[in-house]
């Protein structure tokens, strides 16, 4: 089997950096692509080669298939790794990669199409004997949805057939809400996916979101690498993930893992993928969807299994069989991931853009920071606000939580707002620590201000004191750099604010 000599990474930010690092360790040359906004980005600096692909908006750069394929041809690359997001689950792109004589590092276009259509995926799972949430296995009209809702009993969930990320999704609590919810879901689905098809499921109240990582090669071998608990969500977007889940025992873990393997086998899957389940209060689990790509939260699985999933993807794409079987892998310890977003938790999590004047990620035993930015980086308005993924490992969940608290406390990002204070709040919450939570944890447990933001004063005085110390130090540094400025002076008619220097609003 010939290994790849050069791989183009069709992505940006922390995932592009993550793939580049895996390739470098495998002694595979790397090619980055970049928009005008990312010309000096970290992934561009780390790659062996880099090619421009268009203006800042992703629809004019990272989503333009022709530009990425042209870059791959110019670089004489063997393969393309799509990361996640952008074109990672685009079957047409995977086909065009193959047509261009390159290897797409991911599943087959057929598997992507099947699992990307939520109703077709439900049909496939039902036929394979995989439990699914009660509901319809095909798209429905408004009238049909109303009739099925009566049969299922309220509340119900309307979902986009081509959906994902919470888009095109509406909870309906009573019959009078059907019309408005259906039309809103349909409109959002049409806008987000170009496909307004809607289907219905029984709404599972107070569920947990538990997913299983699978690996499958092109020789018929399929294994699972345990579960990830992804219930800490805001607006259907995951914020904190961990492995393993504290609610599964070995018997249930085995049953869900075998079901995940059955699901992957049913769609002839190869590469890394994720089977997502809804887990109800009666400890019953149901297939939710399959993500036919690497997940954002894949590092927690890597930490507890001691594997590199990106390297495994590359080996599988190169035609190698899995070098281990289910009995060869075992889970050790506990890992937690906090997604560090450039968002302002105190202002309803609005994106915070601008220049990062100072960035120092935490380090030390059991700490991993998968980041895509550095001091001096510009956080653009054009892309997802994910700055980094902070991952920790501990011998048990208690140690992992303590280590995450320590790591979050060490994190220094100045110039923009981040979600770090909110992650600290979650780590200190009694119900999170005890494992007593579901997907509604954030909306139920955190007091909010008038604008719908969490009350960050719950974090205590330590954060404010730390911020004040940083602000004072930066202010002193600025005064030393510009000695003509006094504490009461103005420059160019504008007051100098130590809070502004520290990246905090006051």
Short description:
With 506 residues, the protein is α+β, with helices and mostly antiparallel strands. The protein has five domains: 6-105, Rossmann fold (3-Layer(aba) Sandwich), CATH 3.40.50.20; 107-132 and 205-322, D-amino Acid Aminotransferase, Chain A, domain 1 (2-Layer Sandwich); 134-202, ATP-grasp fold, A domain (Dna Ligase, domain 1), CATH 3.30.1490.20; 332-459, ATP-grasp fold, B domain (D-amino Acid Aminotransferase, Chain A, domain 1); 470-501, no CATH class. The model is unreliable at 483-506 (pLDDT under 50).
What's the arrangement of secondary structure elements?
Blueprint: E1 6-9, H1 13-25, E2 29-35, H2 42-46, E3 49-54, H3 65-75, E4 79-81, H4 91-99, E5 103-104, H5 109-116, H6 118-128, H7 142-152, E6 156-160, E7 170-172, H8 178-193, E8 198-202, E9 208-216, E10 222-234, E11 237-243, H9 250-266, E12 271-279, E13 285-291, H10 298-305, H11 309-317, E14 334-341, E15 343-344, E16 350-351, E17 354-355, E18 358-360, E19 367-371, E20 378-379, E21 386-394, H12 397-410, E22 412-414, H13 420-427, H14 430-434, H15 441-445, H16 461-481, E23 490-491, E24 494-495, H17 498-501
Parallel strand pairs: 1-2, 1-4, 2-3, 4-5
Antiparallel strand pairs: 6-7, 6-8, 9-10, 9-12, 10-11, 11-14, 12-13, 14-21, 15-16, 17-20, 18-22, 19-21, 23-24
List keywords for this structure.
eight-stranded antiparallel sheet, disordered C terminus, 35% helix, Dna Ligase, domain 1, alpha+beta, 506 residues, five-stranded parallel sheet, Rossmann fold, D-amino Acid Aminotransferase, Chain A, domain 1, 5 domains
